[in-house]
Every structure is written in structure tokens, then in C-alpha cells.
Amino acid sequence: MDQQAIENAVTQLLKAIGEDPQRPGLKETPARVARMYAEVASSIGHRPEDFTNYKIFHVADSPRMVTVQQIPFYSLCEHHLLPFFGEISVAYVPRNGQVIGLSKIPRLVDYVTHRPGMQEQVTIDLVRELQDLLNPLGIAVVINARHLCMEMRGINKRGQFTYTSKFTGQFDHDQSLREEFLAQVRSHHSSL
């Protein structure tokens, strides 16, 4: 990431909207914005196969389902570069006792969301990444998010949630398993 180019662009943006980039409150803003983009867009330039921060374990008696709920995330809308944020719940049905370290699922969420994108694509990308890592018998992903591109501009409707979901394998075919997962998500849902 070219930090200096970002700083220069932010300086030009401030001038273009009629601000003085040299006034005390804005003097350090270009450098701050460059550091912020380095953090929130840290997955840019990495291929999916670059996600190596995980370990697969084997359990003798597989659980029916493994669920990690309410994983907080922050991302950038690729259309306006404004934040969207919320919670992601992920579940999978292990194949042959293969499970992933629980802390790796939130890290996978960070990996997928640390680039400009769309909530719909984040949902699909999480399923694809988990499928590639584990090849489980089924995957469920649910995302509830607020989009500042809807709240700060455009329709200006505060507190609107967008819900996306994707179910594969056993979650797609076994309605009782899908309902069990969705009941867990509903019972632990928080309002952002």
C-alpha cells in the first residue's frame, strides 16, 4: 500500500471540498487516513490461498454442528468507501471429525472483510473460504449489518439492517439443522 499516495490524495480531497488541509484540526488527517486504510484494507493484494493462520484438528466423535456467533466485523462499501458493520454467525458440520480452531473463524472473518466489498459477496466469500479449508458436510453463514452509505447519505435511514445468508450441504437439505442454527442466531442477536 502506497501510504504517501494516500496522504497526497486525502490532501487533494480536502482541498477539493473547500477545506484547508493546513488548519490545525486537519494537518495530520492525511497521515491518519493512510494508516486507517492500511488497517481496514489489509487483505487487498492477498489471494484466498494466502490465509494460512489456521490449524485443523481431529475429534473422535464429531459434533452435529460447530457454531461461532456474533463475530463483530467492519468493512468498506466498495461503492462509496463508507463503512458497513455488524455481526456474522458461522456454523459448519464437520466431515470425518475435522474441525478448525475456534479462534480462526473470527480471523477468517477479518481476512474476508478487510477490503472494499459488498455484504452479499462477503457472505459468499466466507462460505467459499471455509469450504476450501475444511470441506465440511455443510456451512451456514448469516450476516446482519448496518451500512453508512444508507444511513449518512442517499435514503438517510438510520438503524436499518441488511440480512444475508448462505447455506450449503446439510444446512441446505436438513431443515431441522438449519432451523437449529437460525434459532441460536436469533436467541443471541444483539442490536448494534
Brief digest:
It is built from seven helices and seven strands. With 192 residues, the chain is an alpha+beta fold.
**Rg on CA atoms, Å:** 20 Å
Low-pLDDT parts are none
- The amount of helix comes to 25-40%
Q: Termini, distance in Å?
A: 31 Å
Describe the global form.
elongated
Q: Provide the succession of SSEs.
A: HHEEEEHEHEHEHH
- What oligomeric arrangement do these chains adopt? single chain
Question: In the CATH hierarchy, what is the superfamily of the largest domain?
Answer: GTP cyclohydrolase I, C-terminal domain/NADPH-dependent 7-cyano-7-deazaguanine reductase, N-terminal domain
Strand arrangement across the biggest beta sheet: 5-2-3-6-7
Fold and architecture overview:
- 39% of the residues lie in helices and 25% in strands.
- The chain has 192 residues and is of the alpha+beta class.
- The chain has two domains: 3-40, GTP Cyclohydrolase I, Chain A, domain 1; 54-187, GTP cyclohydrolase I, C-terminal domain/NADPH-dependent 7-cyano-7-deazaguanine reductase, N-terminal domain (GTP Cyclohydrolase I, domain 2, 2-Layer Sandwich), CATH 3.30.1130.
- The strands form two sheets. The chain has a five-stranded mixed beta sheet with strand order 5-2-3-6-7, with helices on both faces.
- The longest helix has 16 residues, at 119-134.
- It is elongated, with a radius of gyration of 20 Å.
Please describe the structure with a list of short key phrases separated by commas or semicolons.
single chain; 192 residues; GTP Cyclohydrolase I, Chain A, domain 1; GTP Cyclohydrolase I, domain 2; 2 domains; two-stranded antiparallel ribbon; 7 helices
